[in-house]
Every structure is written in C-alpha cells, then in structure tokens.
Amino acid sequence: MKATIEDKVQTRIPTKHGEFILHYYSNSLDDKEHVAFVKGEVAGKDNVPVRIHSECFTGDVLGSRRCDCGEQLDMALDLINQTGFGVLIYMRQEGRGIGLLKKLQAYNLQDQGLDTVDANIKLGHLADEREYDIAALILNSLRVHSIALITNNPQKIDEMTKLGIQVNDRIPIETHIHLDNLGYLKTKVERMRHILKMPDKK
C-alpha cells in the first residue's frame, strides 16, 4: 500500500529561534505524530534548508550529553531562522528507529563497552532502522522544489534522493565534541560514514 499523509493542523509557534508554523501530519503507515516546523515561504523554492531530525527524548528534552541530538536540533533551528526560511521535520523514530526502551538498554550495553552499532545489533536490531518515506511526503506536501539537507549523514542524502527529493546541497551540522559524546561520534564516523571532523589523536 502506498503511504499517504494529511496535513491536519497548522499553528504559529514563537520560539527562541524565531517564529515558525508547526504542521501536524497524520499518515497511513504508523500512528506516530510526525511534524514539520516551517519558517517562511518554502513552496516552489529551491535549495530550501531542511533538517530531518529523528526524535531523541534524552538529548532533545533532557539535554543528555551522550549524543549530539539536542545540540543539532538547536543549531538547525537557528540556521533556518537566520536563513529566513526552511523546514525542520521531526520524525518520531527514537533511537534510530528502535524505540526509547531499547535505546536505554543499548546505553547500558555501551557502558559495558559496546559501541552504538554493536549495542543495537546485540538487542536484535539493525544499526539504523530509520525510514524517511514520510519525510519525503511532507516535503512534497509543502511543495518544496529542492533542498539543502542539514546533515552529516550521506546515507540520509541517498535515502531522500531515492524517494524522489532533489537534494542540491549538504549543510554540515557539527556540534561540540567532549568526553561524553566522543565514542558516539567516533562510531558515527568509523562505522556509519558520517562526515565529521574528529580531534587528532595525541
């Protein structure tokens, strides 16, 4: 069955990053509440800055330093606000798609020495189970012509291109590296092909 979405509600949300319009979508694939945070006029535009951000309760809400998610969320919204237009799609696929419970279990495995990839695999999951069909449908619903994707992940560019989204450019989004997230970011680079500048080994 081909996936469909419906833009159910749009409402104005003033934030520390400026004013956005929040679009609430229902869809035929799951019962999750995927949303788009839209700044300015994006319909028919090229090179629209777009961040496809997967939910991270621990990072986005609690400010966890184990990952770079919360910082990326803030940076992306600030970049979109500074540009004057853009879209942040907030996908409800916690823990690279394995859910909050399994993500927290994976954290415990990481504390025992596994990296993020091996922890997911030990729990019976793939390294990354996220899907982007709904994100592509949201961009089509917003009538975005082409995008500059805010990401360090080449796989995300590949996935969006396969789904028919014209990705003209990549906008890097590099956060602060510290002891709490160093291993996490190193695994992203070495095992998931993310494009990040890692500190030189001493």
UniProtKB/TrEMBL annotation:
<feature type="binding site">
    <location>
        <position position="116"/>
    </location>
    <ligand>
        <name>GTP</name>
    </ligand>
</feature>
<comment type="function">
    <text>Catalyzes the conversion of GTP to 2,5-diamino-6-ribosylamino-4(3H)-pyrimidinone 5'-phosphate (DARP), formate and pyrophosphate.</text>
</comment>
<dbReference type="InterPro" id="IPR000926">
    <property type="entry name" value="RibA"/>
</dbReference>
<feature type="binding site">
    <location>
        <position position="56"/>
    </location>
    <ligand>
        <name>Zn(2+)</name>
    </ligand>
</feature>
<comment type="similarity">
    <text>Belongs to the GTP cyclohydrolase II family.</text>
</comment>
<keyword id="KW-0342">GTP-binding</keyword>
<keyword id="KW-0378">Hydrolase</keyword>
<feature type="binding site">
    <location>
        <position position="69"/>
    </location>
    <ligand>
        <name>Zn(2+)</name>
    </ligand>
</feature>
<feature type="binding site">
    <location>
        <begin position="94"/>
        <end position="96"/>
    </location>
    <ligand>
        <name>GTP</name>
    </ligand>
</feature>
<protein>
    <recommendedName>
        <fullName>GTP cyclohydrolase-2</fullName>
        <ecNumber>3.5.4.25</ecNumber>
    </recommendedName>
</protein>
<dbReference type="Pfam" id="PF00925">
    <property type="entry name" value="GTP_cyclohydro2"/>
</dbReference>
<feature type="binding site">
    <location>
        <position position="151"/>
    </location>
    <ligand>
        <name>GTP</name>
    </ligand>
</feature>
<feature type="binding site">
    <location>
        <position position="67"/>
    </location>
    <ligand>
        <name>Zn(2+)</name>
    </ligand>
</feature>
<dbReference type="GO" id="GO:0003935">
    <property type="term" value="F:GTP cyclohydrolase II activity"/>
</dbReference>
<feature type="binding site">
    <location>
        <position position="156"/>
    </location>
    <ligand>
        <name>GTP</name>
    </ligand>
</feature>
<feature type="binding site">
    <location>
        <position position="72"/>
    </location>
    <ligand>
        <name>GTP</name>
    </ligand>
</feature>
<keyword id="KW-0686">Riboflavin biosynthesis</keyword>
<feature type="active site" description="Proton acceptor">
    <location>
        <position position="128"/>
    </location>
</feature>
<feature type="binding site">
    <location>
        <begin position="51"/>
        <end position="55"/>
    </location>
    <ligand>
        <name>GTP</name>
    </ligand>
</feature>
<dbReference type="InterPro" id="IPR036144">
    <property type="entry name" value="RibA-like_sf"/>
</dbReference>
<keyword id="KW-0547">Nucleotide-binding</keyword>
<keyword id="KW-0479">Metal-binding</keyword>
<feature type="domain" description="GTP cyclohydrolase II">
    <location>
        <begin position="9"/>
        <end position="172"/>
    </location>
</feature>
<comment type="pathway">
    <text>Cofactor biosynthesis; riboflavin biosynthesis; 5-amino-6-(D-ribitylamino)uracil from GTP: step 1/4.</text>
</comment>
<dbReference type="InterPro" id="IPR032677">
    <property type="entry name" value="GTP_cyclohydro_II"/>
</dbReference>
<feature type="active site" description="Nucleophile">
    <location>
        <position position="130"/>
    </location>
</feature>
<keyword id="KW-0862">Zinc</keyword>
